[in-house]
Amino acid sequence: MNVLIVEDEELAVRKLRKLVTEIDPDLTIQGVAGSIEDAVSWLKDHAAPDLIFMDIELADGQSFEIFNQVEVKSHVIFTTSYDEYMMPAFRINSIDYLLKPILKDDLKRSLEKLHHLRPGNNSRQAANPSEPIDIKKLLGKLQDVCKPADHGYVHQFLAKQGQKMLSVEADAIMYFYDDGQSSCFRTRNGQQYQLHYNMDELACLLDPEQFYRISETMIVAQHGVEKVQTYPGSRLALILRPSFGNEVIVNAGQTANFRNWLSR
Question: Which positions bear 4-aspartylphosphate (predicted)?
Fold first, then answer.
């Protein structure tokens, strides 16, 4: 059985090679791609492998983008740092997942599952091993687990911190802001995370009883406002917790509405 590894960390590649060889010597590592670009190029130039181990977070973006650029006919096992709360979203089509750091027993179970899906076994996937992965469905499921059942407001967010993706309760978020490259938020303990939503989308998703958009680039939570001070030009200056670092100003046209919101 031929295998492609899509992973940008050399140490992770070496470890995965070692585990695969120990568990199933019949598996052949045909190639390694360290980026979205490399993976797309490899898949276009080679026959589809039987299996792809695919890290989600690559140096040039999320590996989901690979599915938008080339048809993936192989079975896929994602290797990921998503927290376990998000894992049920990956149980679609022939997708499986391994939570990093990869453990030998977990890898063994995933490979055993794959063997059951291959031709000669009585399963729907085995009858059609090249069934394409519905990546839009996967992304939809990842967002669905963060959606509430009431009012359409989001109470949990799928966010990124370094190479990890995890879910964060909205109640733990003190403010959202645009850093010029992406939307971010900070939590009670000062941790910073990145989001895939822009500020306009966040303004629609957040409960207006708890969050207020004070500018094009910032949304604050009531519990994130530590102090309000007067500011020249009939404006307000906010002291946030944790400290934001830059001046946070509420323009004159919003001061009355902001005071009313804050006093609820």
Answer: 55
pLDDT, tens digit, for every residue of 163-174? Answer: 677 889 999 999
CA angle at 31 for the pair 29 and 32, rounded to the nearest 5°: 110
Summarize pLDDT for 78-127 with one digit per residue, the tens.
887 655 545 555 654 446 778 777 889 989 988 988 887 666 555 444 43
Q: Where are the domains of the chain?
A: 2-142, 146-262
CATH number for region 146-262: 2.40.50.1020
Q: What count of other Cβ atoms lies within 10 Å of the Cβ of residue 104?
A: 12
Express the helix, strand and coil content of the chain in percent, nearest 5 each: 35, 30, 35
d(CA 242, CA 245): 9
Residues, the chain: 264
For the chain, which ranges sit under pLDDT 70?
81-95, 117-152, 163
CA–CA gap between residue 263 and residue 30 (Å, rounded): 63
Write out the H or E segment, with its range, that includes residue 10. Answer: helix 10-23
Domain at 2-142, CATH from 3.30.1330.10, 3.30.70.640, 3.40.50.2300, 3.40.640.10: 3.40.50.2300
**CA 67, CA 153: separation in Å to the nearest integer?**
30
pTM over 0.85: no
Closest CA to 74 of 43, 90, 51: 51
Measured distance CA(114)–CA(120) in Å, rounded: 12
How large is the C-alpha radius of gyration of the chain?
A: 23
The H or E element that residue 237 is part of is: strand 235-240
